[in-house]
Every structure is written in structure tokens, then in C-alpha cells.
User: Fold these one by one.
Assistant:
Number 1:
Amino acid sequence: MTASCGPAVTEKASASANQEDDRPETADPFDPGLRDGTALFALYLSESDAERGWTWLCAAALKGHPIAQNTMATRYRYGQAPVDRDPVRAYLWYSQALTNGLAAADALRSDLSKEMTPADLKQAQASAKTWKPGGCQHFGG
């Protein structure tokens, strides 16, 4: 199971980019002017399609929504669909949630770091320091 967090160019996505509306079923979640992170997170919560839900979750996390970032971290920590377990990515997303004001992410990140190898922890800490929003390719997508 390999999912990525980022805009994928598909025929459907290309077609929806040309439409004037921003209905959830036709909207591009990565359109920077579309919605704020809270609205995107609400769409994630209401989505019944796991793959499409992941897209809304990722978009909300990239827009700085700390609960969305924490949710991303938890999915990576435990390998919840549609992603595989990846403690480095989990650490990074917990760090982003903490930076954006979610105090609970500190304890979750600390617990996770106890489960990580020293090499993974070093990589995760370096990634957290250098992460810049703007795309999901940083996360393997």
C-alpha cells in the first residue's frame, strides 16, 4: 500500500481545474485559493472514499491545520490505510502539528521517538528542521 500526499495530474483533475466551481466532487484540493485548512479537514472527515479522503487530509495538513497534521502523523505511525508505516514521516508530521499549536503532538512525538532506531530519529529530526510547506514530494509523493 503506497499512497502519496500531493497533487496528482489525472484526466479528472485536469478537467476539474477548468471548471469554475469549487464543489468537493470537482474541486482541486491543492488549489491555493480554494479553502483554508479547516474547510479541507472538514471535507476529509465527511469523505467516504478513503483515497479521496486522504487527498483532502493531505491538503489540510499542507495548509497548516494542526489536527490534520497530527492525523497524518498517526496514520504514518501505525501504517493506517492508505499509507504504510513510516516513523520518519510520522515524526515529521507530529513536529508540524506541534509547531502549529497542537501541544498534544509533543507527547506523541516523544513516545514515537522511543520506538525509532537512532538512524531514523536522526533523519526525522533533520527533516523536521528543514521542512518547508509547498508540496508533498518531500514526503515521497
Number 2:
Amino acid sequence: MPYFPRHRDGRLAEMAATSHPVRHDDHGRRRAPRRCEAGRPLRHAALGAALAALLGGVVLAGPGPAVPVAGAAASSGAPASLCPLKTLAHHKGTVNIDFWESMVTANGKTLATLTDKFNSSQSKVHVTLVQQPSYTTTWTKYQAGLSNGQLPDVVQLTSTDLQAITDSRSALPVQACMKATHYGTADFLPRVLDAFKVGGVQVGMPFAVSTPVLFYNKLSFQAAGISSPPATLGQLVADAKALKAHGTGMSLKLDPWHLETWLATANQYFVNNGNGRTGRATKAVFSGAAARKIWTDLDEIVRSGDAVTNLATGPTGFDNLVAIGAGQSGMTIDTPAVLGTVTALLATGKFPNVQLGVAPFPVFSTKVKGGIEPGGSALYISNRVPKVQQAAAWQYITFLDSTTSQATWAAGTGYIPIRTSSTETATVQKLWQTQPGYKVAYEQLLHGLRSNATAGAAIGPYPQVRQAELTTEESMFQQGVSPTKAVATAASKIDRVLARYNQRIGGS
């Protein structure tokens, strides 16, 4: 995520109430974590440590220009006059700005390289990276800053924080600066831009964008007689069964992002009012046949033992990938943002029984035209800092989203190059020729339907919404709750979460 509020690609508010993977017996009851033959927990030290290092609530309206809430018109929400570009042009000396970000390991090194390049390319703006250990930490610290005044000039937040930062009225919509500079966006993937709009206004500048993809061990697939990775949810269920029969099975990360993505592939809304894009979300609307089918299929592979589960956050957050490295799982779904680190680990030769394959996210059905919703994060400019620093921040984030920078970013991390011109560079072309798995997530966003459903949902209390999703999904596996009842319960819980949030901020 991305994205549990992660990057995920991303990545989230801590939801884990347990420090162990959620695993179950044939009757859906919780059981102890599975262990390998040597008696050690399901974890390979090198892979687990590297992945754990990789990815690791709302204060409301205050002073500053109002950021549009859902449903506001783009023309009135972000006029060019809001972007104080002239202040930088007239400033004497260097403007120092802070950037709160959450990129570590390979991703952090790539961001540091790009920032060093920006700082050395000119003398007008100098950027200091302030690294947070996770997206959750960044958002928590940002919320505190809304009260104590300790805010960054630029902040990197996940797609799930979009509505909340909009509601905080603390962000200068980047659309204002786009207008002021006649900044062209025709080169951007349209659905990437859509993901960070509220009410038609570009609030955040997309940067580290991802989509969930399927990781699989080609050797496990060969052993099970599976000729190609699953293209649909139904095929995923069948392949999990075949893999299990030949000694592996599937690792299923319990990430609500996946349910939402499956709904998007069926062009189904998660919440009302255009998925929160045309008006504030007030009600969950996913409790129909599609959601019931999704959770029924997942319930089948977990309760049959064809899949083992782990939480998306906390110390078990990467057990699904660790299991592939340890030869105990044949496939899983995760963010391509791990590719830079995973590729480097595989190159060490310590995992000879893994030939990693990357395939598109298995869609709900090929009979329905939808799309993969973007995840990951965007960059936001604070409107609570001096205007000259806002102008400096715009200069920096446009550098990060330039053709060359996005090519470097994609090659170093696994995130999607969000500009078509970046994919035409020698950097990305060479990457895709030698590592075709890096191209998968990009192609998922290049194709597919463009709609509010495929843009993903805009929800203010997203962490609480995903908490409701997660606990209800777990109730199927741990308590034997039927998928039909679980879906209905999740929707009911989310309705209450939305009502409390909207009442608190005065929305409707």
C-alpha cells in the first residue's frame, strides 16, 4: 500500500491485536503458528529481517485556506492564486524545507539519491529528509502537528489518508500549483491522478504508487502441474488446492486492500456517493453478491487448509513472503514495492529453491470489466508553513515526479512509473527486459476501466473502516461465521464508523 495504510507499496494504523499469524484448523479455529521441520517458527531470518525493515485517527479544520471536501467543484476548490510561486522567485538565498517520508531499505536509499540530486542541481531549495518508520507513524505525527504546530513542508501519506488530510484543511491542493504553472498532466496515468482527487480536485501529487500483484514460486507451480498463474479469483482457489496437494499451498495476507481491489475489478463501489469521490461517504455499499463471493472463496481456502494467513501489520506482516522464501508456500498477494528488496535478496543465492514469478492480481471475473485500484502514496504540501516554503515544496515534488526521477524511482524500488514518458527511458526499458515482473503493476493501471470504483474509495476514518473489515473477516476463520453474515456485519460496522466521523466533522 500500500496499503493497509501502510506501503504499502505502501503502507497503516496498527490493527494487530496479536503478535502471531492467524492460523486455523479445519474447523476455522485459531491454532498455533505453523512451524517448519526444524521446529523453528515459519521465518527465514535473512528474508524476514529485510522485509520487516522495508515496509513497516483526525484533528479537524483549523486556520488556512479551505481544502475542498468531497463534492466540491474543482474550479472553486483550488484556484491558482492559492499557490504562492512568486515568493520563491523573490526570495534571497536558500529555502530549507523538511520532507516527512516513510521509505526504508532499498526504497529509502533511492529516495535519498533522488533528493541529493535535487539539492545539488540548484541552490534555491534544500530538502532535508525526515524518515519515519512507517506510514502509520507519519500520519500519527502529522495529526499531532495539527495541534502543536510542528508540521513538515511536504509529507508523504498513503491513499487511505486522502480524505482525512482533506478534512483537516491543512494541505495546499497541488491542483492550485498545477494551474499556476500550467503543469501538464497528460503524461500521467489517468487512474493514478484519479486516486488522489477529492471532488474533482487534485489534492495530493501521486508519487509512490502500487497495486497488489501475485507473487509465486515457479518451481512450486511446476511441481503442482500448474502451467500459468491464476487470472481470476476462482482460479486462485483451484491453484491453492493444487499447490497444497503438492506440499505448499497459499499464504494469504489479511489485508482489507485486497477485498477493495477485488470489488474494483468488478467495478463495484465500496462506499456510496461515487465511492466517496462525488460526495462524502456515508454508507458501505459492498454487501452484495460480489463481496459475498469474494469472502466465500477466501473462507474456503483457509478453512480447508489450502491457505495459511498472517496479519498485514506487526511482526508477522511479511510471513506470506517469508513462507515462499522458505519453500513453504507457492503463492501470495502483496505490493510490488517489495520487489527492489526481494530481488536483491534472491540475487544473493541464499534461496535456490525459489524462482520468483510476478503476475497480475487475479480479478474477480473476466466476464466483468473493472480495474485494479491504485494504492501507495502521494505528496502533500502544508498550507500551515510560510508561503515561500510552500513554493519550494512544489519545486521539489515536481522534480520527484519528473520523467527521469520516476524512471529512477521505479527501477530502484518496484513502484510504478506514473508517467508514460518514464517507461520509454532506457532505465525502465532495461529493467523490464531483465526483470519483467516490474512491469506487471504498471500494466494493470494502464489498462482497465476508468471509474470512481477503480479509483478506490475516499473515506475519512479509513483506519477504523479497515479495522472493521479485518476483524469481521477474521470472524469467518476463527469463529466459523458464515461469509454472508460476515459481509453484512462488516457493512453495518462501517456504517457506524462513517456516521460517527461525519457527525464529528459536521459532514453529511
Number 3:
Amino acid sequence: MPIKEEYMSAVDVALMLNVDRSRVLVLCRQGRFDGAEKIGSSWAIPRSSVENFKRLPPGGSKNLKQQHEEDKAMLERLKGEMRND
């Protein structure tokens, strides 16, 4: 017999993850919860997907300082290439 998946509402997920409901809705639209489905105007989110949810570090995959340093290095390389042309 197949195991039934338990689903949660956006409000329940928000309480579980200690975030605002609107954040949960954004995560649903981004596809961050595997198996989440929109039913009418509500989301049904599998409990297992919420339990396995991995938060991204602040600033996405890179922090702002690291991104700034990479951008600065790229600009310096481009300036050097332009001087050599």
C-alpha cells in the first residue's frame, strides 16, 4: 500500500520555519519545495519537503563582499585587456 504524503498549508510552513507567510509563497513559486502544488489560491506543501528544506546563505549563493571582490577583479582584467588592444 502506498504511503500517503502529509501536506501543509503556507501558514503552517511559515510557523514551522519561523518566516513570514509571504516568504513561503515566494519559495513555493520558485519551486523550492519539491512537490508543492497550488490548489485554487492556496498551496499544498509536502511535509517531507519542508523538513528537507535547505536555506540559502544570506545574499544567495555568495555573500555580498565576495561578489564585490569578484566583480572588482573582473573589471581590472577587462581594463587590462582594453589597454593591450
